[in-house]
Design a protein that fits this description.
Mean pLDDT of chain A: 96
CATH superfamily of the largest domain in chain A: Type I PLP-dependent aspartate aminotransferase-like (Major domain)
Distance between the termini of chain B: 35 Å
Shape of chain B: extended
Structural class of chain A: alpha/beta
Oligomer: heterodimer
CATH class of the largest domain in chain A: Alpha Beta
Radius of gyration of chain A: 21 Å
CATH superfamily of the largest domain in chain B: Lrp/AsnC effector binding domain/regulation of amino acid metabolism (RAM) domain
Helix content of chain A: 40-55%
Shape of chain A: globular
Number of strands of chain A: 12
Largest interface: A-B, 24 and 13 residues
Strand order of the largest sheet of chain B: 2-3-1-4
Mean pLDDT of chain B: 90
Order of helices and strands of chain A: HHEHHEHEHEHEHEEEHHHEHEEEH
Strand content of chain B: 15-25%
Order of helices and strands of chain B: HHHEHEEHEEE
Structural class of chain B: alpha+beta
Number of helices of chain A: 13
CATH class of the largest domain in chain B: Alpha Beta
CATH architecture of the largest domain in chain A: 3-Layer(aba) Sandwich
Number of helices of chain B: 5
Chain lengths: 387, 160
């Protein structure tokens, strides 16, 4: 029999975190700092709208690009928070999470052999999506000394005449890094000069701790070459609802819509109704959660300083990315030992790219009480190592 | 910082000053001073513990009592309320808008004890013209805290 499997898919490595989480789930009273989703329940008024939509029988498909009301609210939200102006009718597409938007944006913009620049450490799906879209991923290894921001120099070094897209994963999972206005202006200049398009994954935009998030699409000259991806998972604690969106120039969005309508039809209807409520009346919820995360972030940084764990101060998302280079262990060894001896699960930095070696991703999407327990155990572990 | 501090200790009054300082991103001394000021200004009126007495093997009943009063000349609601809240059985007293005047919450060991209090102490106050007693059968949520249910982390392992 011939192999039923495509050659291309076999080139994609399965994620390394899986094995690790299997270990965790088998272990009794392990505490995890590994989860990458909010610990908050979706605010009740949002859930209630979802339930209400079911009550009154809103159980049909929506139009392919999404509910008109929702697209309008999305555009208002992006304008009120980030000064981005998009047309609801043909520049906005509601997707099944930000992840779908990443996939179809790459597929809509990539020809075989096009190079897609991906700064790492970053979210695990950019690279496989780039490959599946027929593109060639080109990795930029971000540096701790730059607080894991992307610099103009690094970008210029990665560009060739085949470069088509730059992925901008900020605020960043797993490092918590952000890009401030001046940083973005430098990058924008290069993109315009070299005629490169940007896929800006801003799913964590609501969670920044050093002034409001800036979208690269708001830098003059960038709107026409940027697809902004965002969603409800992180901002409104709605991961399970699977709802995101993409906004960008009509020429790109209309092609993304084609893939979306043939592959997905439309995003879940219940989620879309709930999301309308989230955008109309949810800003305060988002701010409350942001403040809560911010307190935890400060608490973690403080405890790291106390236990002598080196960590740059991250200003976005809900992750910290401490360095463990001082212990002469690989990230994976460290994480495994920590799990075995103290029953604390963290994710090795290498899960997010080879350059994550020497770092750990620690999520603070956990209650302060849970964080305290986990950090006490980590401290004991580090004391043991330092003996 | 004041409001943030208040909302934090409202949720958990046992947080240590050092922790509060870290989370608020200020010096410990600033927190200590602010707490002292808040106490002196009477904004922080006490530090209590939330207890689900139903889980403790001790008889306890609670009732909400709607009280209608007829204030007399020279004796307004405040004074009548004071006469009522002086009783140690009374845990809360509020002046209300709407169909009745005072909401009195009282705690006792038995139904009988509470009923006796209403008939003998409350109803006999000159200005009280009527009462309606509602016994609390079960508390679901109190002071923003859901009782009984302990929340479990049900998030599954996912790759991201």
């Amino acid at each position: 029999m011939r192999s039923p499997i495509s050659q291309q898919i076999t080139t994609i490595r399965p994620s390394g975190i899986r094995r690790f989480f299997d270990l965790v789930s088998e272990m009794k009273d392990a505490v995890s700092l590994g989860v990458g989703e909010p610990d908050f329940d979706t605010p009740w008024h949002i859930r209630d709208e979802g339930i209400h939509s079911l009550d009154i029988g809103r159980t049909f498909y929506t139009s392919n690009a999404g509910l008109k009301e929702l697209k309008e609210e999305i555009c208002k939200y992006l304008d009120r928070h980030y000064g981005l102006k998009y047309e609801p009718s043909d520049e906005t597409l509601v997707t099944v999470g930000g992840s779908e938007a990443i996939d179809i944006a790459m597929r809509a913009m990539t020809d075989p052999g096009d190079e897609i620049i991906i700064p790492q450490p970053s979210y695990v799906s950019y690279e496989p999506c780039a490959i599946l879209a027929g593109g060639k991923p080109v990795i930029i290894e971000l540096k701790e000394e730059n607080e894991f921001r992307l610099t103009k120099r690094e970008l210029l070094d990665a560009i060739t005449d085949k470069t088509k897209i730059l992925v901008m994963p900020f605020p960043n999972n797993p490092t918590g890094a952000i890009m401030e206005k001046e940083d973005l202006e430098e990058i924008a200049k290069v993109c315009i000069e070299k005629d490169i398009f940007v896929l800006s994954d801003e799913i964590y935009s609501a969670l920044t701790y050093k002034g409001e998030h800036i979208s690269i699409a708001s830098i003059p000259g960038m709107r026409e070459r940027t697809v902004v991806i965002n969603g409800f998972s992180k901002s409104h604690a709605m991961t399970g609802w699977r709802l995101g969106y993409a906004c960008g120039p009509k020429v790109i969005i209309e092609q993304m819509l084609k893939i979306h309508q043939f592959a997905i039809m439309c995003a879940p209807t219940t989620s879309q109704y709930a999301a309308v409520e989230a955008l109309r009346a949810g800003d305060e919820d988002v701010e409350n959660m942001r403040q809560e995360y911010d307190g935890r972030r400060r608490f973690l940084m403080h405890r790291f300083r106390q236990m002598g764990l080196k960590c740059f101060e991250p200003f976005g998302a809900f992750y910290v990315f401490p360095s463990i280079q001082q212990f002469n262990m690989s990230s994976e060894e460290f994480a495994e030992e920590l799990l075995k001896s103290q029953k604390v699960a963290v994710v090795p930095g290498t899960a997010f790219g080879d350059c994550g070696e020497g770092f750990l991703r620690i999520s603070y999407a956990y209650s302060l009480d849970a964080l305290k327990v986990a950090l006490d155990r980590m401290e004991a572990f580090i004391k043991e190592l330092n003996k | 910082m004041r409001e943030k501090l208040l909302s934090m200790i409202e949720k958990n009054s046992r947080m240590e000053v050092s922790e509060l300082a870290v989370i608020l991103g200020v010096e410990e001394e600033t927190v200590t001073k602010e707490l002292k000021a808040l106490e002196e200004e009477g904004i922080i009126c006490g530090y209590h513990t939330m207890i689900d007495w139903d889980k403790v093997d001790k008889d306890k009943v609670m009732a909400l009592i709607e009280v209608n009063v007829t204030p007399q000349r020279g004796r307004g609601f405040d004074e009548i309320a004071e006469r009522i809240y002086q009783y140690p059985e009374v845990t809360s007293t509020y002046l209300m808008s709407g169909g009745f005047d005072l909401m009195v919450i009282i705690e006792g060991k038995t139904l009988k004890e509470v009923s006796m209090f209403v008939t003998e102490k409350l109803a006999t106050i000159e200005e009280v013209s009527g009462t309606a007693t509602h016994f609390i059968l079960k508390k679901y949520k109190d002071h923003g805290t859901v009782l009984e249910k302990k929340k479990k982390d049900t998030r599954e392992a996912v790759i991201l």
